[in-house]
Design brief:
It contains ten helices and five strands; from the N terminus they run E-H-H-H-H-H-E-H-H-E-H-H-E-E-H. It has 242 residues and is mostly helical. The strands form two sheets. It has a three-stranded antiparallel β-sheet with strand order 3-5-4, sandwiched between helices. Helix 1 packs across helix 2 and helix 7 crosses helix 9. The longest helix has 30 residues.
């Protein structure tokens, strides 16, 4: 029996405009449904289009969306055409991974605030930036570009609706929300350009901020020691003692 999936994985560009309005957010979610359904069909390598519906509904919990729809009907849908154009070029993009439970919470609830959508984008971006790493150094331009649905990390890749987070005050609110709602550990100080992120948890399933701080400080001490040794060697060479 084929195992059901617990996460939807899709190109970050499918979330462009997600934070701007409820209408655009719904459109993004519809694109994701089309993408993960089409991807499941492609990955199945099944040549019998009559099985299209059963294959994509079984693993993806999408019976309410695809039940009774044939493959030919699906690919003629305008939103499916939009998705297929993205699908054909998605290999160069960074991916988001969203739990199916979270997806349907945002899809079915009529009480989603803009700040909720922005925090979700930030969390998906953190996971995307981390990849399989336990922690990583990033910065606001990378984070906001990814939240905007862009893999490129340039200032002009940040959507206008997220520009407020380029200010230190609003960025602080966003990062604090990530810690409180999604358990993202964030560590920085004056000596760090950017900030470190981690999803590591304690034995009590709390964000392990203390671990992250210790790792970063140990890394900085090691770097300082290496720099000190290098400077000492250069000084010795200049004095002709080496």
């Amino acid at each position: 029996m084929e195992e059901r999936l617990h996460f939807y994985t899709f190109p970050c560009s499918l979330m462009k405009g997600f934070s701007e309005s409820e209408e655009k957010a719904n459109h993004c979610l519809e694109l994701i449904i089309c993408f993960v359904g089409f991807r499941a069909w492609i990955d199945s390598k099944c040549n019998d289009v009559r099985r299209f519906n059963s294959i994509i509904c079984k693993r993806l919990r999408l019976s309410n969306f695809f039940n009774g729809i044939t493959y030919d009907e699906f690919i003629r849908m305008p939103i499916a055409q939009e998705m297929i154009a993205i699908f054909n070029n998605h290999s160069k993009e960074a991916n988001f991974s969203m739990s199916i439970d979270t997806f349907f919470h945002f899809k079915n609830s009529d009480k989603i605030r803009q700040t909720d959508r922005e925090l979700l984008l930030a969390f998906l971006s953190v996971k995307s930036i981390l990849g399989g790493r336990t922690y990583w150094l990033t910065n606001k331009t990378i984070l906001l570009s990814r939240m905007s649905g862009n893999t490129k990390t340039k200032a002009d890749a940040i959507s206008s609706s997220l520009m407020k987070y380029t200010s230190r005050y609003h960025l602080g609110i966003l990062l604090n929300g990530l810690f409180l709602k999604y358990g993202v550990s964030i560590y920085s100080d004056r000596g760090i350009r950017g900030f470190y992120i981690s999803l590591k948890k304690t034995d009590n399933d709390e964000p392990d901020l203390e671990w992250l701080a210790d790792v970063v400080e140990e890394k900085r001490k090691a770097k300082d020691n290496s720099l000190h040794k290098a400077l000492k060697k250069i000084k010795s060479q200049r004095n002709g003692t080496s």
